Amino acid sequence: MKKRVLTSVLIVLVVALAFVLKMLVPFGDYFFDVLILAITCLACFEMAKLLKDMGKNNYKYLATIFPVILFVNHLLGWLYDSEIGLGWTIMIDVCLVILTFAGAYLFGLANVKSLQKEIRIKKLENTTPVKLAFERAINTSMAFVYPALLLMLMTTINHIADLTSTFAAITNIEYAKYFSCAGLVLMFVIPAATDTFGFLMGSLIGGKKLCEKISPNKTIAGAIGGLVWCVAVSICAYLILNAIPVVGVAFSALNFQLWHVVIISFLGSIVAQLGDIFESLLKRKAGVKDSGKILPGHGGILDRFDSHIFVAPLLLITLSIILICL
């Protein structure tokens, strides 16, 4: 427990520092990008390891560096928003997944002798080098999507203020920066509140299990409690931010209202729990307790940020709708 608490405090301090740098330092947004990129690369490494534990061989290091490729695309998207736009940036993300899969497949075909040796050693009688190369490329591509493609959407939330052509409602960069900051606050508050209060309420109330075969410790009471408290904490976070004069003016200018936060946190808590359950399913299939050991008391990066993977696309969609409908 002591290790878990100390690790949690360290995570909070690192994230808090990223927020401070984002708001107070020129080009501070990029410090947050580095944090998100590091988290995503480590999560992809752990995902590749989980897949290997499931018997799905893959190119572990290609999966690990793939978020860097996505980041470069996102960087170009922010710099050339008037020519590219957010829609095209996301479409290019998908194309990069497909192209990198093709590259992994061709790499496998170029190393036929290595594949033939593997087939002999493992006695894979019903497998050919072509089929094995395709399977490895497909397995690697799983990490390209989950967690890489989804988690890297956080960088787009971080740079909403740079998307002035995509979102015509952004007429004041400073206001948009506060809106972006609010989105990132919710990005971290929703999973943390859902997880923390879900655990507390589940421990206090107990009752019927939510999905015993996948995650035996989760209860229906914990799921409902996590959702209710997530909405409550998110409302408090909004009210605190809105009480800051300049932030309140920004929220008013961009029509970011309390009922938006209620809906976002309600839906966010649901998808956060789905993300947690999905990662538990992956670990169960891999036959492991944790995705890694990098975070003492928590396990791996995926164990800590599994909920964020599903929350990121939801937040980007909802924040985009608010700006488009303004």
Which helices and strands occur, and which strands form pairs?
Blueprint: H1 2-24, H2 29-53, H3 60-79, H4 85-110, H5 112-122, H6 129-151, H7 153-158, H8 173-205, E1 209-211, E2 215-219, H9 220-243, H10 245-253, H11 258-286, H12 301-324
Antiparallel strand pairs: 1-2
Helix pairs in contact: 1-2, 2-3, 2-6, 2-11, 3-4, 3-6, 4-6, 5-6, 6-12, 8-9, 8-10, 8-11, 8-12, 9-11, 11-12
Looking at the structure, what is the overall shape? globular
Q: Assess the beta-strand content as a share of residues.
A: under 5%
Strand numbers in spatial order across the main sheet = 1-2
Unreliable spans are none
Please bin the fraction of helical residues.
Answer: over 70%
What structural class results from the helix and strand content? mainly alpha
Please identify the oligomeric state. Answer: single chain
Contiguous helical run count: 12
Radius of gyration: 21 Å
The main pleated sheet reads as: 2 strands, antiparallel
Task: Give the integer mean of the pLDDT values.
Answer: 93
Distance between the first and last residues' Cα: 46 Å
Quick one: how many beta strands? 2
- The helix-strand sequence is HHHHHHHHEEHHHH
